[in-house]
Design goal:
Length: 306
């Protein structure tokens, strides 16, 4: 069984819809720790990461907002992630997707020290492949995947400790990409399984192909699960709803396959905005999905000889 380390990441400054700051508390209230313990895992809650003293930084792109705060979160969460990785499987309870600027950096630093390649699966409606130079919204939650991939244009953020090779990144469920992001992605070897691919090929084959690559490389796998990966009809508590997302059954299937792979070493839960929820339904669904990712099944299938 796994030692699960819960880390609250109350990041609200990466976008403009207030409420993600309440995400960590919502996951605790929805029983995330209890579900993990029921499945036989040990659980350690390290509380919420705090924002450190802010640096006096500016940027030529005047659209960017909360730059000092996002750099502070990146430093703090990178440190928290790097410290947690040797002790178990960190689960970062967000908070908007800007938290991944720090979590993936910390996980990448640990993987580099361990001499193992890092792979990332990005379960999201958005590619989050802008840089601070290309964003027109100024919302830095749209930049972490570009940061992890080593794109230029991130000063004054700290240098990413070990950029993730493009072939080690899989975007899954993508259905909203800005033109600048699309052009940048076209120049990479990142696997983009958008909803067109998943509609044509189904969920299982593209996911298994990526997991086979992780396994063959003895890689570590970071999963970043955004609420807007899900269809807003079943998960309304997100400020960036995009129709046509994963269904209840598809999302659980993804999580069960990830569990069966035995490859997941760290997890982000991002963009939950409890202020937009309906009696906690989105928080509860996300907790159920973590349960599936950690071994919860309706029925365990026996191996048969026929």
């Amino acid at each position: 069984m796994t030692h699960c380390i819960l880390i609250g990441a109350p990041v609200d400054e990466g976008q403009r819809v207030p409420g993600c700051v309440m995400g960590p508390a919502a996951y605790r209230i929805a029983g995330l720790g209890r579900v993990l313990e029921t499945l036989g895992h040990s659980v350690e809650d390290r509380g919420d990461v705090a924002l450190p003293p802010l640096k006096d930084v500016t940027h030529p792109n005047n659209a960017i907002h909360h730059l000092p705060e996002m750099i502070g979160w990146t430093d703090a969460l990178s440190s928290a992630a790097e410290q947690a990785m040797p002790d178990g499987m960190p689960i970062f309870m967000g908070g908007d997707h800007g938290l991944a600027l720090g979590t993936v950096a910390g996980v990448a630093a640990h993987a580099k020290a361990a001499g193992r390649p890092l792979f990332v699966i990005w379960l999201d409606a958005h590619s989050d492949f802008h840089t601070p130079l290309t964003t027109t919204s100024g919302n830095l939650h749209g930049t972490p995947m570009a940061y992890a991939a080593g794109r230029d244009g991130f000063a004054p953020f700290p240098d990413f400790p070990a950029p993730v090779p493009a072939e080690n990144i899989c975007m899954f469920g993508i259905r909203s990409v800005d033109p600048a992001e699309h052009a940048a992605l076209e120049e990479t070897e990142i696997t983009v399984n958008d909803m067109r691919v998943l509609d044509e090929r189904g969920i299982v084959a593209p996911l298994m192909e990526f997991l086979d690559r992780v396994r063959a490389a003895n890689g570590m796998l970071h999963v970043s699960l955004d609420v807007d990966f899900l269809d807003p009809a079943i998960a309304p508590a997100v400020g960036t709803t995009v129709p046509g997302g994963a269904t209840f059954r598809e999302a659980h299937l993804v999580c069960e396959i990830l569990h069966e792979s035995g490859l997941v070493t760290s997890l982000d839960l991002v963009e939950l905005n409890p202020f937009l929820d309906d009696r906690g339904r989105t928080a509860k669904l996300m907790v159920d999905l973590v349960g599936s990712m950690m071994g919860q099944k309706v029925f365990d299938r026996r191996t048969r000889s026929f």
